[in-house]
Amino acid sequence: MNTTITSLIFTNYKFQSEGMKDLFEALSANCTLTKLNISGNNIGPDGAKIVSYLMLVNTTLKDLDISYNAIGVGALHIADSLRMNEYITKLSLAGSKMPSDGIKSIVKSLKTNTTLKKLNLDANFISGTEIQYLIKYLKTNSTLTSLSINSNDIGMEDAHLFNELLQCKHLYKLKLEETFSSPEMMKVFFKDFHLNSVLRSIYVGKNRINSQGVQCLLDNIVQSSTLQELHLNYNKIDYDGIGYVAKYLKQNSYLKTLNLSFNMFGPIGAKYISEALFTNNSLKKLVLDDNLLRTDGMRSIAQAFLVNSSLTFVSLRRNRFLDVNQTIYKSLINNYTIIHMEPASKRVKELCDRNKDVQRVLQFPKTFNFQKNCATVLEELLLVLKVKAIPKELIIIITKVVAFRLLLLPHNIYNFLKN
């Protein structure tokens, strides 16, 4: 067995439980593997039992994915091992066809497990009973920070339970894609969101919540000062709904990532987003793929790049526009923060690369391993150059030259320069 391998991926090989026996023998004594993905292999309950043994004897495995393996009642064995395991921090059990008792047993293990940080229970027909169990044990668990329960069987009658889920004090990321059947359900779930002070990331894509639903959502999260990521992809939000999003962006100074892909809100919606970007100074990542922005919409977004100084990542793929690379290029000439743009012409990529250099230089001493006194000299130099309103391209050149010279000078010269 290879003694240096740290990650092993065997997906969709269909090796079933017999193959698991061979894999167990190979991995039980391994002391380097940290990630194992065997999703989509139809290992069944017997294979799950073998995996549970592996969880007990392997002390290096931290990331385990056994999704879509039809483990069924084998979940009981996984749960037993999870109670005793002290190493795994990420576990994915999506699409496992677990019975209710299996799901409850997995959730109950959270009472004693103190290492698991991320749990994926997507597509497991979870309903109100299992949600109640989940809430009960999450309240006593202080280590699980990320929970994914996308694509489950949660009806309107169970929506109120999610208000209690939001009261879990250590949950930072929550994925609820394909969960809400109506805007009303969304409203019930998020009505007490203003009481939550820890959640940082919410995924509510693929819920078809439309404009009414997005208004309900934003009305309830607008006061949050902790939410940093919001994913609203695949929700059939038209330009009226995007108007609510734009209003939220104008008022918000905490959100870092916004995903609005696959909503088809067109050029009018793009204009609303552009106007919001003129005033928003916190958003760093914006995804607008597949929204029929067309040429006019792309030009509106490009206009915002002339003013916005916080965005670092922008994705505008598949928006049915004519060649607007020239427009984007011109808008980025004096933009020094965007370091990743999709799609991007060769010239746009060159500007993004330039901006990476800009950000490295402007973030001394974090991005360079200079001695402390050397870094201080450079920081003071940057301050002087900024106060003097020196163009950023020139700042880069000056700082690089000085940094290079400082690296070649003996220690006593540093102090001479500093004084």
From TrEMBL:
PANTHER family: F-BOX DOMAIN-CONTAINING PROTEIN-RELATED (PTHR24114:SF2), LEUCINE RICH REPEAT FAMILY PROTEIN (PTHR24114). It comes from the Eukaryota. SUPFAM superfamilies: RNI-like. Pfam families: LRR_6 (PF13516). This is Uncharacterized protein. InterPro entries: Leu-rich_rpt (IPR001611), LRR-containing (IPR052394), LRR_dom_sf (IPR032675).
